[in-house]
Amino acid sequence: MMKGYILSVRSEFYKSRKTLGFWCSIILPFLICLLMFVAFLTHSEKMAKLPAQILWVSYANVIFGVMGKLLLPIYIIIIGYSVNSIEHRADTWKSLFSLPISKWAVYAAKYTYAVFLVFMCLMLFYLFTIGGGNLLGALKPELKFFEFHMEGFLALIYLKLFLASLGILSVQFLLSLIWADFIKPMGIGFLGTITGWILVGFNWEYSYWIPYAHPVLTTNSIFTFNKKPVAPGPLVLSVDMFTKEVFVSLALAAVFFILGFFVVQKKSVK
């Protein structure tokens, strides 16, 4: 089974190299981080007065906020559809399941590859943020990026965002297995995302049960000190990794992953 699983993962990579989902995973972090890099580069005189820690937090917070609150749910909707749409468009489910590879191996490989794309996208966000900050420090020495390091903190917040995104991914992955067209999974995903924004915006205490609210809740839980008056001195940067939304996200990911396998089991090979 493991050999079939590895072959299936490799096959997913070759099939998806020209899809929107694959290239979104690379271009999206590059463009967002590039825009932020140019903004700081062209307004360096305004940023030069900021202490090193505040400078890093300001730089990373905008990138993290745009990705977590706005783009991540939409990106995951595209990824969930993109991985399964190849089989829907080419009508290759039957030929795929007629191969001497178990349905479980094929399904697990597709899901693993979707998770990998999300992980790769967030990893690139992390690397481009760190690289952009250090490059700004080299090009504009008046920006004090070299006087503070927050690589470890940024790694933890992107890891938390990744864990909080798995619930949405599993839901969208299941929807894209059920429906071949793009409209239904996308419509449900958009509706869920907007609902999540509204519920979090109104501070509904049970919003952590809504998977589409998890990225926003995670983003809001980081850098909250920016919204409050703080005492003089350095900010305390810490990450509470396993919050309620992360636990619910992981639980929903497991439940919808299993439901997706039952959907695959019912697909005919005749």
UniProtKB/TrEMBL annotation:
Pfam families: ABC2_membrane_4. Signal peptide: none annotated. Keywords: Membrane, Transmembrane, Transmembrane helix. This is ABC-2 type transport system permease protein. The chain crosses the membrane at residues 20-42, 62-83, 104-128, 148-175, 187-204, 246-264. The keyword Transmembrane applies. The keyword Membrane applies.
